[in-house]
Structures are given as structure tokens and as C-alpha cells.
Amino acid sequence: MERTQAQDIRLAPWSEGDFELLVRHNSAAMTAHLGGPETHEKLLDRHQRYLGLDDGRRGRMFRIAAGPEGASAGIVGFWETTHRGEEVWEAGWGVVPEFQGHGIAGTAVRLVVAEARGAALHRHLHAFPSVDNPASNGVCRTAGFTLLGEEDMEYPKGHWMRCNDWRLDLTGPPGPGQE
């Protein structure tokens, strides 16, 4: 059986050396569904926020490591947010272009689901991909999230987008394909 890249995926805790991956992730193509690229200053702030999540109590960010060499394939993580009056985890991810189309995002999100479940802090994990982003909506579906509907969200500040609200209950047993 041929081995796919998605079988050799692991999460590496976000580190100081991962800033260049964040810069690569900030391209027009990678941020097309997120309001476009951010300034260098905003990237530096984001990098510091990611580093500040290393205790796991407010979430965790990871570099997606692919293959035996651990090549940087993308970013995935979860963090605390308030949604409709409830404290929840929110998940987000991005896979750089040369690694897209190999199931890497789905594998990485399933690994993040396991991390959020292990944190045992919030009942729900949400993801809010743009309704115009079929790839990320497909990741939500295959990772076991339930589609609750569409809503308008402001992200980044000053930019409104129509997104899908996907939710996964972390208190039940893991679903098919979840760790």
C-alpha cells in the first residue's frame, strides 16, 4: 500500500523558530478567506500570542510537521474564545501550498481535537471557516464537527465575513478517525 503524507503527520509545539512559517502563511493565497495578509507588526504580535499559549490552559498552537524530516507543512491550534455567551475552544489551521491536497489538514485537525479533548477545560471546540472555503469546511466535516449554520463574524477586526459555525463536543467518546 502506498503511504500518503498524511500518515507521517505530527504536531510540534509552536516555538521561537517558527516565525518564518507564520510569514509564509501570510501570503495572499493563504489568507484569501481571512481578510488578506497582515502587517509585519501584526505577525510579530500573533507570533508572541502563539508562544504565550505554551502552557495549554488557554490553548495551544503547533507547527504541522510532515514526513520523516518533519518539514514545516503548516499551522494548527486551538485557543479560548467566547461564542454566544459560552466559553469554548476555537480551532484554526492552514497548510502551505506545496503540502495541500494530501489530507494533512484533516490529520492535523484530528490531532488538535485530541489535544483540546485532553485539556479537559471546555465542552466544545468550534471552527469558523468562510462559507466560500470548501477545503476547510471539508476538513471540519471529516474531523467529526457538526455544522450548526452560517453567521457573520468580524475577522480580522474591521473585516466581516460569512462563515460556517462547526462544533465538536469534546465530552463524548472520540468519533471515527479521532485520536
UniProtKB/TrEMBL annotation:
Name of the protein described by the UniProt record: GNAT family N-acetyltransferase
N-acetyltransferase domain sequence ranges: 9-166
Family that this chain belongs to: Belongs to the acetyltransferase family. RimJ subfamily.
Cleavable signal peptide: none
InterPro entries: Acyl_CoA_acyltransferase, GNAT_dom, N-acetyltransferase
The organism of origin for this protein: Streptomyces flavofungini
Keywords, comma-separated and alphabetical: Acyltransferase, Transferase
SUPFAM superfamilies reported in the protein's UniProt record: Acyl-CoA N-acyltransferases (Nat) (SSF55729)
Pfam families: Acetyltransf_3
